[in-house]
């Protein structure tokens, strides 16, 4: 809600609008030590409390204002709880770095466009996980075992993908379409004059002064007439449809009988010569 209010209070000029990207596919690759180096992982492992871990993350990824800025705070929570899960699973330094980079990459794909790209992001997550669980160098390495792959998948689904729309709302611009239609070759409609407005007001006043009983009777008569007209239209339509269906059925029956007669005649013609041969 705060982000929405800020957008409404400070409208941007057309040239200041952020560039909107369409959802796209991403190619997975090995990302061990891509975001967290060996020294970074060692610093995080040496941290004993949550405040120290967050301070180290703030130093590495320049998130110093995570306590005051909402967006930075959300990103800090994502990074911190990702590390907490890796610690609970007792991942090695390589696994911590790879798992952290996987979560960071899918977060970046999520917020790169305001349009829906849940399928693209989840497919990218699966491809990244596959790159680090199958031994097929140089395209992939066997870093996570099947049990760890299942745990990572459950964690990502229950945390990141469960709050996918929240991340997109907080980090992507709001897209709104302002549509204006101009008819080519037609003059613009002039605004109504004061006399026309007064005349319309007078007609409304006269209608309001009419007797309520007379208006009710007129409305009832109109409803009855409309109902009778509708009933007649329905009857005519049903009569035409019934005739059309009857004609169609008769045509199908005639064609079926004709086809059956042709088959019978062909069978008779095929049997006549055989009988003649037997008599001879």
From TrEMBL:
InterPro entries named in the record: CLAMP
Name any one Pfam family assigned in the record: CLAMP
Which named protein is this? Coiled-coil domain-containing protein 189
Please name the source species.
Answer: Elysia crispata
Q: What is the lineage of its organism?
A: Eukaryota, Metazoa, Spiralia, Lophotrochozoa, Mollusca
């Amino acid at each position: 809600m705060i982000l929405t209010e800020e957008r409404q209070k400070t409208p941007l000029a057309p040239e200041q609008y952020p560039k909107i990207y369409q959802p796209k596919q991403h190619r997975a690759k090995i990302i061990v030590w891509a975001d967290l180096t060996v020294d970074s992982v060692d610093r995080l492992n040496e941290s004993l409390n949550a405040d120290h871990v967050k301070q180290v993350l703030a130093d590495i990824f320049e998130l110093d204002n995570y306590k005051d800025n909402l967006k930075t705070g959300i990103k800090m929570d994502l990074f911190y709880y990702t590390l907490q899960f890796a610690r609970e699973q007792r991942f090695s330094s390589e696994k911590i770095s790879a798992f952290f980079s996987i979560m960071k990459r899918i977060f970046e794909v999520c917020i790169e466009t305001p349009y829906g790209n849940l399928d693209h992001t989840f497919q990218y997550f699966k491809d990244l996980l596959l790159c680090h669980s199958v031994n097929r160098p140089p395209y992939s390495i066997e870093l996570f075992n099947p049990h760890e792959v299942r745990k990572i998948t459950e964690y990502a689904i229950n945390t990141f993908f469960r709050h996918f729309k929240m991340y997109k709302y907080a980090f992507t611009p709001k897209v709104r379409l302002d549509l204006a239609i101009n008819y080519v070759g037609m003059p613009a409609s002039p605004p109504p004059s004061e006399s026309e407005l007064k005349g319309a007001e007078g007609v409304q006043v006269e209608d309001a002064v009419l007797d309520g009983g007379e208006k009710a009777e007129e409305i009832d008569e109109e409803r009855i007439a409309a109902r009778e007209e509708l009933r007649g239209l329905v009857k005519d339509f049903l009569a035409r449809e019934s005739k059309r269906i009857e004609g169609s059925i008769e045509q199908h029956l005639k064609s079926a009988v004709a086809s059956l007669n042709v088959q019978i005649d062909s069978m008779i013609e095929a049997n006549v010569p055989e009988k003649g041969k037997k008599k001879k």
